[in-house]
Design goal:
It contains 20 helices and 8 strands. By secondary structure, the chain is of the alpha+beta class. A hairpin with a 7-residue loop joins strand 7 and strand 8.
């Protein structure tokens, strides 16, 4: 800032040492020169030369051309460029869905280490699966291209055990749904992961001595022996989605809010993505603004508690619907009232106020939360009980009288008894209030014969 102030001085008043005349010496008024320098500073906050602008124009044209004529290839490359950023992957997957392009879950027989085109769709990249190294994924692709597709889970273990295969990588691939095309339940595969990994470790020791292989038999016999899968049912759909969220950061085969779609429509809940777009300038016709009260139907994905200065607890909660995620700020009072409903993986109906600050992502200040159920939605649709026509104006008049009573005390000293009597006769409520208050506070201190004393004998 000091350097900028020096430049301002040089620009307006000049600098003889540097040979700068300055604007004033050249006949420009000081106010005009100062205003011109301010405009230059504002422009310099975000400006670039013509060469830079031309480069931007060329890149914009090429990406627009690819998106129009090769949308799947373009989106696959775009997703690959943000492999380590879950939020961006989620945003681009939603963009692909908006264009009618599905992003398929990872598959050990179809996926590559990067996002790739699979027919009319895009196949999820294996390198985006957490807990699995990219080098292992490249080795998997090399093995598949060299010796063909993996025919079963057993075949996959036999062909990959001497590479970088481990318990964590297997569990991540299973939870992400990479073996679903082999028609196994994920619950079955997770049940046998530990025995398989232990057998791999024993097999490596035996291979050094030239003994038995992975399953304690000769190689020829292993090829003909199938792993016995436990006869157990698949885990519930919600748990499957939670597994996908854990390993990829996304819901791939569905979304927890899918089963609440009808309730969301009945509740007239706002779209989280639309709120974010409106407040970040992405929407040309914004609907939502800072300070507006909105209703959201979301699933809770994360809860972070924090202690305030006075020792009470508040929370920062991440909630998302099937379009995007947003952060909720829950102050102590709201946390005490509805904190029991703000648990991970729970579907809730939220009401809060939008909080949009500069250089920060939009947030919602939570006012109310309740479980997303049929009864909760129906209670929103029921109109509030209207007051009776006779009672509504009467209550308003009574409230006005109570307020007006506090406005007439100062005039009692200057108003004679007859005028005060006539004034108070219009309203019994005013008369009673004046009598009571003046009796308690002022009666003994006022001289006899004043209006305040006479009013007591009405």
């Amino acid at each position: 800032m000091k350097e900028l102030e020096k430049e301002r001085v040089n620009f307006i008043y000049g600098n003889e040492e540097l040979g700068i005349d300055g604007a004033i010496k050249r006949g420009v008024p000081e106010a005009v020169a100062a205003s011109l320098f301010d405009e230059i500073m504002d422009f310099a906050n975000y400006a670039f030369n013509k060469a830079h602008a031309v480069c931007y124009a060329v890149v914009s044209f090429r990406t627009a051309y690819l998106k129009c004529h090769y949308p799947r290839e373009y989106l696959a490359a775009l997703l690959t460029s943000v492999l380590d950023v879950s939020d961006k992957i989620s945003e681009y997957i939603q963009a692909a869905r908006d264009m009618g392009i599905a992003v398929l879950p990872p598959d050990v027989n179809e996926s590559y280490d990067e996002f790739s085109v699979a027919g009319e769709n895009i196949r999820f990249g294996l390198a985006a699966v957490k807990g699995v190294g990219r080098s292992f994924m490249k080795q998997l692709v090399e093995e598949r291209e060299a010796n063909g597709l993996f025919t079963s889970f057993q075949d996959f273990c036999e062909r990959m055990y001497d590479r970088e295969l481990n318990r964590r990588a297997l569990e991540s691939l299973i939870k992400a749904g990479s073996f679903d095309s082999m028609h196994y339940y994920r619950s079955q595969l997770l049940k046998i992961v530990n025995p398989v990994v232990d057998a791999i470790a024993q097999n490596r020791k035996k291979n050094i001595e030239g003994q038995m292989d992975l399953f304690g038999m000769g190689n020829d016999e292993v090829r003909d022996t199938q792993i016995a899968m436990p006869n157990i049912p698949e885990v519930p759909k919600r748990e499957l989605l939670a597994m996908e969220k854990e390993t990829t950061g996304l819901y791939l085969s569905g979304h927890p809010m899918d089963e609440y779609r009808s309730l969301t429509q009945k509740a007239q809940a706002a779209s989280v993505k639309q709120i974010i777009d409106d407040l970040t300038g992405e929407s040309s016709q914004p609907v939502y603004k800072d300070g507006m009260t909105v209703r959201l139907a979301c699933v809770i994905t994360a809860v972070r508690l924090k202690s305030t200065k006075n020792g009470s607890m508040m929370a920062y909660v991440t909630a998302e619907d099937d379009t995007a995620a947003i952060e909720l700020v829950v102050f102590p009072r709201s946390l005490q009232q509805c904190g029991a409903y703000l648990t991970e993986d729970s579907a809730v109906l939220l009401t809060g106020k939008i909080d949009a600050r500069e250089d920060e992502a939009p947030k919602v200040l939570l006012n109310e939360a309740q479980p997303l159920t049929e009864s909760a939605v129906e209670s929103l649709q029921q109109p509030k009980r209207a007051r009776r026509n006779r009672s509504t104006p009467m209550r308003r008049r009574r409230s006005w009288r109570r307020k007006s009573c506090f406005c007439v005390f100062p005039v009692c000293r200057v108003m004679n008894g007859r005028r005060l009597k006539r004034f108070c006769a219009r309203s019994p409520a005013i008369r009673r209030s004046i009598s009571t208050r003046w009796t308690r506070r002022k009666r003994r201190s006022l001289p006899a014969g004043t209006g305040a004393n006479r009013i007591l004998h009405f």
